[in-house]
Amino acid sequence: MVLGGVIEFSFNVLFRASIYVLVAIGLSIIFGSLQYVNMAHGALYLLGAYVGYVIADSNFYTDGILASQGQFGLDMGFAAALVLVPVIVFVVGVVMERLLAKPFYDRPLLDQLLVTFGILLVFQEVVGEIFGKSSLQYPRPDWLQGAFALPGIGVPPGFEAVSTVRVLAVVLTIALIGLIIGFYRYTNYGLAVRAGTEDTEMTQLLGIRVGRPFLLIFALGASYAGIGGLLGGFQFGFSYQSGVEIIIPALVIVIMGGVGSLRGTILASLLAGFSVAFVGEFVPSMSTASIYILAIIVLAFRPNGLFESEAIAQ
Fold first, then answer.
1. How much is the pLDDT for 199?
2. Which residue among 102, 116, 128, 256 is buried most deeply as judged by most CB within 10 Å?
3. 239: alpha, beta or left, given left = phi > 0 and alpha = psi -120 to 50?
4. With b meaning 16 or more CB within 10 Å and e meaning fewer, what string describes 282-309?
């Protein structure tokens, strides 16, 4: 029983940390690479949740424009949503970077903050009008129901209360973190982004075009937020306000970890996941607020975050 409780709590922490890191890592790499504050990142989380919902099943809506359409959805299953959502949100990220982000790269951070937060608010209201303002819940396919089980072995000891989707989210997030680190360290595009981050003008004088690498890193961050919306929406449900609800904690996590530090973002997400899971066991109403209390404590001792002044690939 003790082992099961420890494992269950650990995966609760890791799952919440996975959702936070998938959103925060995009914020961190976009700001660390492009010096661009993208509060519209919450809209990409929201887009991932709703697009995945439409792909996964044929659904009924109780209000909004789609309420009069009867069933509306592609009914392709959650596995298809896992594949298609990051692709779709990646494409949206490309369009967002070209049309909405690039014109503001050289503008003050306050301008970026106001414009992108305004985009998020407008987007969520449009989503609310189309899909309705009620909370939605994904249908659960058979392969994601019940406790996590290994093929041919069954449920491992202590995993009786650990859902399959939590294990899936943790494993997928670890793989995605490895992918982004590999991109920065071992690809020419990653090297171009790192060089452009240090000195864009000098990098361009050396004949290295940084526009396309910057576009790619923006779109990658967008796709990660979309995956976060898909997984978070599946487990906790979602509504048209979910984008605003996730972006503020994600921004706090980026600042707490150290802006531009992947390692700091990951560690801060783990601390936030632990804080939410632990406080939620005793005072559920304070679970989200505990992230801000944690950030105050961390920044009081380390004003620049857990890992300050680090290269983006660290």
1. 57
2. 256
3. beta
4. eeeeebbebbeebbeebeeeeeebbbee
In sequence order, what are the beta bridge partners of 147? 163
CB atoms within 10 A of CB 198: 10
pLDDT by residue (tens digit) across 201-258?
Answer: 666 655 666 667 778 889 999 999 999 999 999 999 999 999 999 999 999 999 999 8
pTM above 0.85, yes or no: yes
Residues in the chain, overall count: 314
Rg, Å, the chain Cα set: 20
User: pLDDT tens-digit profile of 170-215?
Assistant: 999 999 999 988 888 888 777 767 666 655 666 665 566 666 777 8
Distance CA(39)–CA(17), nearest Å, equals 20
Residue pair 35/105 in contact (Cβ under 8 Å)? The answer is yes
Q: Where are the domains of the chain?
A: 10-301
Give the C-alpha separation, 295 to 61, whole Å: 38
Return the closest-CA partner of residue 72 out of 131, 134, 137: 131
Closest CA to 48 of 77, 96, 83, 12: 83
Q: How far apart (Å, rounded) are the C-alpha atoms in residues 48 and 87?
A: 10
CB atoms within 10 A of CB 257: 31
List the beta bridge partners of residue 154: 150
Q: Where are the alpha helices (DSSP H) in the chain?
A: 2-34, 41-56, 78-96, 109-131, 164-186, 188-198, 200-205, 211-236, 242-257, 262-282, 289-301
Cα 55 from chain centroid (whole Å): 19
